[in-house]
Design a protein that fits this description.
heterodimer, A: 287 residues, alpha/beta, Chemotaxis Receptor Methyltransferase Cher, domain 1, seven-stranded mixed β-sheet, three-stranded antiparallel β-sheet, B: five-stranded parallel β-sheet, 5 helices, binds S-adenosylmethionine
């Protein structure tokens, strides 16, 4: 049996690839998962006619930002997602949207899905909001969705899902209402697609998008950031959030002990509220 | 523990479904067609029925209609599980009262997710 020990990758090669990923995305590869690099990169090697990771690194040295580097990043990032992931959390986002609208009538809500992978999260939000527009008079919020990975965004914009992807988490009634079937795949209908604006955005590098958001979701993204990167990402998220706006993290993620920019919400359990003027304090404390 | 009745004329499919359902902590019963399934439901209603479409004796659709008219007090949830993956079939199933729909082939995660959606897992 081929174990992780009999790899064709030198430890040096693994380090270089790990460094590229961290530099481009802030994501760290846990030491006990380093052996997975090879498995993940095999299709990329094959596609580019390369035999070993060392050859790959030689090629990358010349083109750190080309399509090859993008393909490597795409292969290494954990992009797992599903429709209505943690459905109860999304229901609460919907309630929060209604509550904010009631407090600020006439304002068009803005929602940011940061680290949106191939689009299940923002499309789930769009479906929920569309339903609330009909049933409870929600004015359709603006939904911005972003990811660091260009390939993920291509797929997200296309809104095309395999039979396995479409069946994970998506109730069948919503599936037939919002998707068309095309040669065994399921494609999001234009009327839903137009509700989401996709953008390339790197949480560890790029400044917060312009304009403040009422609700920011950043779920299952922060997990593999180092503590210091995470802290600065919280500052970016804070800069993007309206005073009193809400931050939603993944199950098992928290701001507690990591930043003073957000505090737990009393009203929406598990959500966090942006504290006014706290981000700069955090930054000062880090220096 | 919840009970799931697996209705499929293929023994292999029933076996695969049983295996997955048992790992999800279900008590599993089996039926080879709609008629057997109806009898089984009349004897003791399960929490959920995993229902194939094309079967001899009584099809999934006919079973669904018969179940509706059977007067069983605690109606089980019904999840179609079929290779009929076209939009027209899916719409017809929803119209006839199916709660969820699984397109074959399926895996553990698909099944678990659909059972969660109907509130039995
Ligand atoms: C595990 S997925 C989570 C998707 C979705 N939020 C969910 O919870 O289902 C994490 C996503 O974060 C993205 N990501 C990783 N590092 C990022 C960064 N520095 N900036 C923006 N997105 C990043 C990855 O490309 C991936 O698509």
């Amino acid at each position: 049996m081929l174990g992780p020990q009999q790899s064709f990758a030198s430890p040096g090669a693994v380090n270089v690839i790990g460094a590229l990923l961290e530099q481009r995305t802030g994501q760290q590869i846990a030491a006990n998962r380093a052996w997975r690099i090879e498995t993940a990169l095999k299709p990329v090697l094959r596609e580019h006619g390369l035999d070993t990771l060392d050859q790959l690194i030689a090629r990358l040295a010349g083109e750190r930002h080309g399509p090859l580097a993008d393909a490597v990043i795409n292969a290494l990032l954990n992009q797992e997602s599903s429709f209505f992931r943690d459905a109860g959390v999304l229901e609460m986002v919907a309630e929060a949207a209604l509550a904010i609208q009631a407090e600020h009538p006439g304002r068009r809500l803005r929602v940011w899905s940061a680290g949106c992978s191939v689009g299940q999260e923002p499309y789930s939000l769009a479906m929920l909001f569309e339903e609330l527009a009909v049933s409870r008079g929600l004015a359709m919020p603006e939904i911005v969705a972003s990811d660091v990975c260009p390939q993920a965004l291509v797929r997200a914009r296309a809104g095309r899902y395999s039979q396995f992807e479409i069946q994970r988490g998506l109730p069948v009634r919503r599936m037939v209402s919002w998707f068309d079937s095309e040669n065994g795949e399921w494609v999001v209908r234009p009327e839903l697609a137009k509700r989401v604006q996709f953008r390339c955005h790197n949480l560890t590098r790029d400044p917060a998008p312009v304009g403040k958001f009422d609700i920011v979701l950043c779920r299952n993204v922060l997990l593999y950031f180092s503590a210091s990167v995470r802290r600065s990402v919280f500052d970016t998220l804070h800069a993007a959030t309206r005073d009193g706006g809400l931050l939603v993290l993944g199950a098992g993620e928290t701001v507690i002990g990591q930043t003073e920019a957000f505090r737990p919400s009393d009203r929406f359990r598990g959500f966090y509220v942006a504290d006014s003027g706290q981000a700069s304090l955090t930054r000062a404390a880090v220096r | 523990m919840k009970t799931c009745l697996v209705v499929d004329d293929s023994k292999v499919i029933r076996k695969v479904a049983r295996h997955i359902l048992e790992t999800l902590n279900f008590t599993v019963r089996e039926a080879g067609d709609g008629r057997e399934a109806l009898d089984s439901c009349l004897e003791a209603a399960p929490d959920v029925v995993l229902l194939d479409w094309n079967m001899p004796v009584m099809t999934g659709m006919d079973f669904l209609r018969a179940l509706k008219e059977s007067g069983i007090a605690q109606k089980p949830k019904v999840v179609f599980c079929t290779t009929e993956n076209g939009m027209a079939y899916i719409r017809a199933a929803i119209e006839a009262g199916a709660d969820e729909y699984v397109m074959k082939p399926f895996d553990r995660e698909t099944l678990q997710s659909k059972l969660q959606i109907v509130g039995v897992a």
